[in-house]
Amino acid sequence: GEWVPVPPGAKIIEGAGAVTGATLRAASISDPRVAAIMLTGEITTRYRRAMRRDPYYEPYWEMWAEQEQHHYAVQPTDLGGLIPTLRIDTTRLDAGQVVRRAYDFIA
């Protein structure tokens, strides 16, 4: 995908399993302006994009899917109303559209 500039001073917690209540509370200690942006999408779209991005990941896809299921079984997706949260269904969006929606949310 394309590179996107990040506003100075911004902190990014990246990764599907990285956004938890604990990580968000920790991030907000030094700066209360914390928000979460959760990307979702149809499984077929996610698979296609993942394989296009990294075709060597294919043998690990099923393992990742099981880990994701476990993560969401123990970590609620609503984050308990801890912080402002934006959910973006990326199924019909390109990377630029996703970034613009996210940036608008945090700006």
List the helices and strands and how they pair.
Layout lengths: L20 H10 L5 E5 L2 H11 L7 H14 L10 E5 L5 H12 L1
Parallel strand pairs: 1-2
Could you walk me through the main structural features you see in this protein, from its secondary elements to its overall organization?
- The protein has helices spanning 21-30, 43-53, 61-74, 95-106; strands at residues 36-40, 85-89.
- The chain is mainly alpha-helical and 107 residues long.
- It has a two-stranded parallel ribbon.
- The radius of gyration is 15 Å and the shape is globular.
- It starts with 20 loop residues before the first helix and ends with a helix.
Extended strand count = 2
Net shape: globular
Overall SS class = mainly alpha
| Main beta sheet | 2 strands, parallel
Count of alpha/pi helices: 4
Order of helices and strands: HEHHEH
Radius of gyration: 15 Å
Through-space gap between termini: 22 Å
Helix content: 40-55%
* Beta-strand content estimate: 5-15%
Question: Which regions have little confidence, pLDDT < 50, spanning 5+ residues?
Answer: none
Nearest-integer average pLDDT? 80
Output the strand order for the largest sheet.
1-2
